[in-house]
Amino acid sequence: MGMEGRFHSVKLLEEKCKGCTNCIKRCPTEAIRVREGKAVINAARCIDCGECVRTCENHAKTIIANSIDDLKNYDYTIALPAPALYSQLGRASGPDEVVWALQEIGFDAVCDVSFGADIVTECTRRHLISHPKPRPVISAACPAVVRLIQVRYPNLISHVARVESPMYAAARVARVEAAEKLGIAGDRIGVFFISPCAAKVTAVIAPLGSESSCVDGAISISDIYGELMTELGRGRSARPMHRGSNLGFAWANSSGELKALGLHNVLAVDGIHNVLGLLEEVDNGRLAGVDYIEALACPAGCVGGPATVENPFVARARMIEISKAVEADSAEALSEARRLVDERGTDFFALQGELTALSGLEIDPRLEVAIAKMSELERVLARLPGLDCGACGSPTCRAHAEDVVCGNASEVDCVFKLREAMEEVAEELLRLAKTDLPSLQRRNDK
């Protein structure tokens, strides 16, 4: 568990860290520092976006997830493959062959998360009608973006759609149907998400706005890739419990959610730093005329997640092909999704708890102390060079000033301030060397 009891799937492998500072420059919440030659992750600020995993050339950041071995803890297991999985396994691997491979490596059944995307699409349309304000509504499909809002833009929490992610929508349907069909107790059914990213692994263990999860575990695509590739190519296939439409599969690519919704006056943004810029616009009230925003932390969408193995642009092209390949079954999938929403109700697929602000960027919980520290921070910042070089181990000069006033760093950790201090010491030593010391003068007179 991280600070404030929060679980984090992104972990530092200290023995591999070279203290290179690449990660501190890319972290969107400034959650990483380099101290004594090693990276240190501030758990309160981390949103598990995986940007440090993607950035680290030394592979010192990793994603902690479940493994196939965990399936043995359940009587019946269901795989929830993210649509992005199908883009990772080569052109010759159709969806049905991948479903068969998942069953060969240990799962009893498969329920496509693309079907969950069809359900969420239907629920989102209804949400937009029943919630005319505030605008814009921000998709809750990417947990890294929702965590970013909780940590950095708490004023925008009310803008987040009260609709679960496709992963949870698929899990709710699969678990209920398996229990009813097989007569197995719910806690003996293991539901595992095949994840393209760290944020969704975290969302399985620590679901957004809820104390309990309807998904029992998450396995990274990169961890399961080798075993799946071993099974593929044998020409066998199997159908999942539910298969999504071509629009559901398209969710794996950026703008796929908007294409499925078929709405106008909407925006799509991908890449966590691009998301930051757009959320700033929303927070400043400049996008009140936009109805809906699809925001994804990974470049190109889920196909570019840090737990994937394929080039995101190649994967994106494959997803377009896969979407076309399943188009013939799309009408049936969309009809089934609408039927389930009508039958279960939108509340069944809604976020189960309230989203709250997460304290990560506060300097001090006591208001008067925080005000005093902010004043001191500005004074320290004015003395720093403003180059944002990262050599001090903090991502920016402002972050370094914050670390100084919070007692986590010294001002002379800045190499430029250290040089100034050394020059002052050198000048003082030189001055003393040129000064006649009285004790020496008296000794020489004798």
Number of spatially distinct domains: 3
Structural class call reads: alpha/beta
Number of helical segments? 17
CATH class descriptor of the largest domain: Alpha Beta
Describe the structure.
The protein is an alpha/beta fold and 446 residues long. It folds into three domains: 61 residues, Alpha-Beta Plaits; 206 residues, Rossmann fold (3-Layer(aba) Sandwich), CATH 3.40.50.1780; 79 residues, Electron transport complex subunit B, putative Fe-S cluster (3-methyladenine DNA Glycosylase II, Chain A, domain 3, Orthogonal Bundle). Helix content is 42%, strand content 10%. The strands form four sheets. A four-stranded parallel beta sheet has the order 6-5-8-9, sandwiched between helices. Strands 7-11-10 form a three-stranded parallel beta sheet, with helices on one face. It has a two-stranded antiparallel sheet with strand order 1-4. Helix 14 crosses helix 15. The longest helix has 19 residues.
Fill in the keyword field for this structure:
10% strand; Alpha-Beta Plaits; Rossmann fold; 446 residues; 3-methyladenine DNA Glycosylase II, Chain A, domain 3; four-stranded parallel beta sheet; three-stranded parallel beta sheet; alpha/beta; elongated
